[in-house]
């Protein structure tokens, strides 16, 4: 085990000069914004790359690579830095998925450290909670009953123990320094705090019940100014404990005790055995061929890989629409509707529910779906996906701020694509004191009340009905693309169900159209998740596109719903191009020595 127990090795933290010097040293060996005509959210390098939605987290991960660490070491350091830098999106109170390519072994892995339902969680209990809440805040969104068993720290410990090369404490220390310096209030965090205050205006009880959250990020009900820093001494204490106790720090001990107290105080049902018995799972990745490439992505309980595979199979079978960009975009959206329909009907945690993954990934099924793409008009919702799978469990079946994605490539060619989450913006609003751990509201990703959609408007089947120990269905889509057995692209996103559509759009822009990564990230991304039967755009669509969608029979929403993609492209000459979606303000950092 590399989890250090040498307390003497943990440095004294809290001096802002430490991080200032750290950033200066990083600048010697890494390139943040690229030179030339690249925008600041594109970077280039030859010996490694980190692309995350935080410039500070990317710099921390890149420093690990520059000092000789591998992609897995950098993933641990980047993830823990994101806990500090993106408190609205991710953190040690959440979980996630990782897809990676092991260069020496020429092998892909998929790790599941998704949150799980406590052993006392039942559908009957959540039906009663929803009835009791009435028109008030949903108990599967806010409060202790919304919290799933966190898996992130256990997942990072697993990554480090199996695949890492550096000392654990050295990977945790930069996040402690960052916490003591303080989280930077950028536009995305500023907007997330404003959104939380709007929720509190809607339900005044939230401000009182979750005073710990509002007191930290909006003291006296005022959003900190842009550019301000919010010191996180409390979170630094938690990270110091993690530095000492390693990946098991959340299973038992002071952090576990604090989590259980916070959940109990806010109406939850988690017990010590839930934390102690949590298991990180290695799963078989979803792998499909597409236009001469191999797509490697996440299997259930993520739905992202299966939805993406259904979409890609159908698009490949129907052929290209070069010369007719509007028709091509319509075909993408129609194919996605089939994927989301099958998601809603069939998918869930395959350790609990029989999900027909093999059928849905089959090329013959993709060809059947492609026939539907040749229609001259969009169809009724019931015509999408399949209802013809025998023996499977299924039934008829808000902007996300709580997810973060990053990609890493090291000099040896190892690739990590990792998505992590606390689900909604600031998760459940529950904070485990005195450590400042913001706890997830992942249980809303289950079907908790039959017939009711979740906070993202997704309708789900009995396959995703909440049950003790089960893991909720997710839209996270960490993905790696190979050509001729070598990685050429790593990507993934944040944004609730828009993770799937946004990741697909960027992948298709690169693979189908040969677009540069910069162009692929800039382009517009229409989204349709089958239910509700509406097309959303992340920005105002061009008139020709809007007219084409309307003429095809689609209802267009005036709301702008965005997903955020991080990606790294490996060029034939070995150059690495990192892209951090400008929609969230991240920055990639490339290693040049």
What do these coordinates show?
- The chain has 593 residues and is of the alpha+beta class.
- It has a domain of 274 residues.
- A hairpin with a 4-residue loop joins strand 4 and strand 5.
- The longest helix has 22 residues.
- The radius of gyration is 22 Å and the shape is globular.
- The two termini are 30 Å apart.
- The N terminus is likely disordered.
Main traits of this protein?
7-stranded antiparallel β-sheet; 8-stranded antiparallel β-sheet; single chain; 593 residues; alpha+beta
- How large is the count of helical segments? 19
* Uncertain segments: 1-35, 390-397
* Helicity, as a percent range: 25-40%
Assign an overall shape. Answer: globular
Q: What is the straight-line distance between the termini?
A: 30 Å
Strand content: 15-25%
Layout of helices and strands:
Layout lengths: L15 H14 E2 L10 E4 L2 E4 L3 H12 L4 H15 L9 E8 L4 E7 L9 H11 L18 H12 L4 H14 L1 E2 L2 H16 L2 H5 L1 H7 L11 E2 L2 H13 L8 H12 L6 H5 L4 E3 L2 E5 L2 E5 L6 H15 L6 H22 L10 H5 L1 H10 L29 E9 L4 E9 L7 E2 L4 E2 L40 E5 L2 E9 L3 H14 L5 H6 L12 E3 L5 H9 L4 E5 L3 E7 L5 E5 L7 E4 L2
Parallel strand pairs: 17-18
Antiparallel strand pairs: 1-21, 2-20, 3-11, 3-21, 4-5, 4-12, 5-8, 6-7, 9-10, 10-15, 11-12, 13-14, 15-16, 16-19, 19-20
Helix pairs in contact: 2-3, 2-6, 3-5, 3-6, 6-10, 13-14, 13-16, 13-17
């Amino acid at each position: 085990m590399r989890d250090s127990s040498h307390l003497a090795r943990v440095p004294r933290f809290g001096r802002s000069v430490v991080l200032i010097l750290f950033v200066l040293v990083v600048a010697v060996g890494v390139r943040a914004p690229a030179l030339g005509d690249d925008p600041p959210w594109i970077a280039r390098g030859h010996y490694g790359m980190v692309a995350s939605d935080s410039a500070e987290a990317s710099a921390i991960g890149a420093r690990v690579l520059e000092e000789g660490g591998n992609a897995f070491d950098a993933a641990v350091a980047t993830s823990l830095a994101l806990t500090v830098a993106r408190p609205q999106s991710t953190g040690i109170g959440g979980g996630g998925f990782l897809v990676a390519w092991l260069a020496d072994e020429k092998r892909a892995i998929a790790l599941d450290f998704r949150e799980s339902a406590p052993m006392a969680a039942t559908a009957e209990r959540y039906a009663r909670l929803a009835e009791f809440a009435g028109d008030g805040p949903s108990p599967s969104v806010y409060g202790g009953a919304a919290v799933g068993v966190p898996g992130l720290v256990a997942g990072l410990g697993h990554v480090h123990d199996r695949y890492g090369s550096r000392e654990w404490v050295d990977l945790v220390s930069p996040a402690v320094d960052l916490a003591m310096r303080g989280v930077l209030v950028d536009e995305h965090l500023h907007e997330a705090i404003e959104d939380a205050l709007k929720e509190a205006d809607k339900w005044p009880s939230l401000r009182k019940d979750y005073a710990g959250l509002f007191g930290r990020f909006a003291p006296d009900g005022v959003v900190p100014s842009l550019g301000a820093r919010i010191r996180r001494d409390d979170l630094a204490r938690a990270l110091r404990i993690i530095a000492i106790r390693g990946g098991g720090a959340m299973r038992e001990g002071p952090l576990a005790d604090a989590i259980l107290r916070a959940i109990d105080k806010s109406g939850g049902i988690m017990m010590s055995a839930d934390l102690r018995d949590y298991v990180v799972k290695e799963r078989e990745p979803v792998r499909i061929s597409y236009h001469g490439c191999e797509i490697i992505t996440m299997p259930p309980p993520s739905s992202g890989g299966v939805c993406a595979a259904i979409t890609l199979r159908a698009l490949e079978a129907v052929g290209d629409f070069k010369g007719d960009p509007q028709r091509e975009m319509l075909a993408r959206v129609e194919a996605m509707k089939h994927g989301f329909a099958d998601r809603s009907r069939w998918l869930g945690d395959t350790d609990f529910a029989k999900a027909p993954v093999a059928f849905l990934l089959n090329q013959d099924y993709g060809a059947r779906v492609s026939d539907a793409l040749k229609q001259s008009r969009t169809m009724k919702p019931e015509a999408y996906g399949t209802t013809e799978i025998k023996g499977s469990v299924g039934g008829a079946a808000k902007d996300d701020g709580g997810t973060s994605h990053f990609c890493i490539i090291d000099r040896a060619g190892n690739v990590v694509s990792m998505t992590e989450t606390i689900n909604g913006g600031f998760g459940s609003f529950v904070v485990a004191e005195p450590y400042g751990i913001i706890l997830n509201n992942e249980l809303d990703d289950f079907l908790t009340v039959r017939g009711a959609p979740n906070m993202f408007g997704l309708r789900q089947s009995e396959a995703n009905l909440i049950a003790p120990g089960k893991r909720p269905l997710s839209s996270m889509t960490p993905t790696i693309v190979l050509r001729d057995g070598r990685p050429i692209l790593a990507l993934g996103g944040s944004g609730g169900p828009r993770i799937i559509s946004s990741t697909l759009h960027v992948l298709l822009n690169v693979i189908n159209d040969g677009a540069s990564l910069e162009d692929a990230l800039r382009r517009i991304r229409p989204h349709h998740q089958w239910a509700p039967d509406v097309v959303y755009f992340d920005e105002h669509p061009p008139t020709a596109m809007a007219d084409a969608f309307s003429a095809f029979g689609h209802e267009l929403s005036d709301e702008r719903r965005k997903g955020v993609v991080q990606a790294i492209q490996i060029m034939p000459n070995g150059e690495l191009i990192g892209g951090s979606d400008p929609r969230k303000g991240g920055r990639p950092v490339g290693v040049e020595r």
